[in-house]
Every structure is written in C-alpha cells, then in structure tokens.
Amino acid sequence: MLPRNYALPRVRRLYHRRLHCAVIFSLLKQHRRKRLRRRPFPKEWLAFIQRHVGFFRRLSASDRAELLGHVQIFLAEKRFEGCGGFTITDEVRVTVAAQACLLLLHRKTDYFPELLTILVYPLTYMVEEKRQVGEHFWEEGTVSRLGETGRRMGSLVLSWDAVKYGAADPSDGKNVVLHEFTHQLDFENHAADGMPSLATREQQLAWAAVMRSEFASLRAADESGIPTLLDTYGARNPAEFFAVSVEAFFERPCALRARHPKLYEQLRNYFQQDPVEYSAETIDR
Question: Domain map of the chain by residue range?
C-alpha cells in the first residue's frame, strides 16, 4: 500500500510547473507590449485621432505619447467585427481605441483583460429585451441601443454613429465608448458592482462609502424629477452609476468637482488623472 502523502510531491511539481508557465507567459506578454509601444505610430492613424477625438489635442505631450502607445497594444490584442453590414476600417478601430485608452493613462493596466471582441454597428441598433413592470410582471419588447457589454460576454457592442458623436464633443457629458469600457474596468474584480479593482481594503471602503451615498442621491433626484449633472440612467444600479460618473469625470470635470467633490476625488485617485487640466468644458455648461 502506498503512503497517504504519496501524491503530494506530484501535485507540488504540477503546481510549480503551472506557476512557472504563468510567469513565462506574463514576461513574454510584457516584452511584446514594450515592443509594440516602441513602434512608430502610423501617420494615418494619428490623422484619424486628430480628426475625430476632440480631447487628444488638449492632452500634454507626454500623455499623448502614452495614449498612442496604449492604442498600439489595444489594437494588436482586440478583434473588431462589423455588424449590420458595417465594414470595419482602421478609422473605426483607431477612433474607438483612442477613447477607450484614455481610461488607462497613468495606471498599470492589463488592457481590459475580460474583453476579446468589439462589435460595431453603423447606427443605433435594436435588441429584444425583457423588462420588469411590476412585482410579478414582465414585458418583452424591442429597444434601441448605442452600446452594451456584459461580464460574461467577452465582447462589447458599439454604434459607430454614437462613437463619432461622443468623440467629437469632449465636454457634452456623453461618450458611449467611455461608458461601455468603464463597465469593463468594473468587471476586473470579477463582478459588475460599480467597484473596479482597488489595491487596498482602505481604498475599497472609501470608494464604497462615497459611491453608496452618491448613488442614493441620484436615485432620489431621479424619483423626484430634480435636474442632475449625472445622467439619471445611472440610477438603475451601481454599475451604471459608475459608468455615467466616469462620463461626467472626463467630459464635465469642472462641474463634477464643484457639485460632487467626494465623487470627483475618488475617480481622480483611481484614474490618477485630473481632467480639469485638459477639459474643453466651458463655464456656462
């Protein structure tokens, strides 16, 4: 009869082998990404960004360079597919990537690891949706959408028309790319709960306290019809609240800092950015 712990050395060897493979894979990935960042950025791609992405020219030179490096990696790792007869071009890919990568500046990132594919429709698209209309009643219907994603989808859907509209005006508070890619950041802690992956317990508690209070305020304002800076779509759940808050953080930072200073501080700490420094927002907005 074999001793009870006979299998333990084999299990340990298997564990160390897998750990070794994971380390090698991570090092190879880091090396490949460094090589991609060093590549000359295609002039045609830069022209697309300058033409379509309004915030780009307002960034500092170092931030523009960092953003372009992120775009190189993003486009090498993500697959784009056209839907509804739409043809994917470099113009489409680069315009989406430049906006999504704004969320990655100044931070250690793994480039939206849960996301594999970006699906793009030419215009607003229609989907079948089941909605709860009462405690025990649901209804089905067709609704229009500008974008969507899900934690287990592995994909993200966008309307090209909405992508261009959001990129053109960097201070209207609406950007479907920032909104949907914020959901991808939310998924990095393996949940869709309105909290991204945060390094410490202290950061998590501070985030939760502020977000809980701000979410409750938005829901109360929505129910009473009080005008709000934040899109009331965020009153649906904490995940949507996080997404609309990020839209406001990057597109209406002056107003957000003035009206919701604690919320602004949490987002500034997480993103390691202060969009007030490059905002196109005007005082009368």
Answer: 37-277
Q: What is the pTM of this model?
A: 0.87
228: which residues sit within 8 A by CB, 6+ positions away? 218, 221, 222
Please name the residues in contact with 238: beta carbons below 8 A apart, sequence gap of 6 or more.
193, 194, 195, 211, 215
Identify the helix (H) or strand (E) that includes residue 156.
Answer: strand 155-159
**Pairwise CA distance, residues 280 & 277, whole Å:** 9
CA distances to 33, 45, 54, 70, 213 from 73, rounded to whole Å, are: 6, 14, 21, 5, 37
Architecture of domain 37-277: 3-Layer(aba) Sandwich (3.40)
pLDDT in tens, 95-111: 999 999 999 999 999 99
Of 73, 113, 71, residue with least CA distance to 96: 71
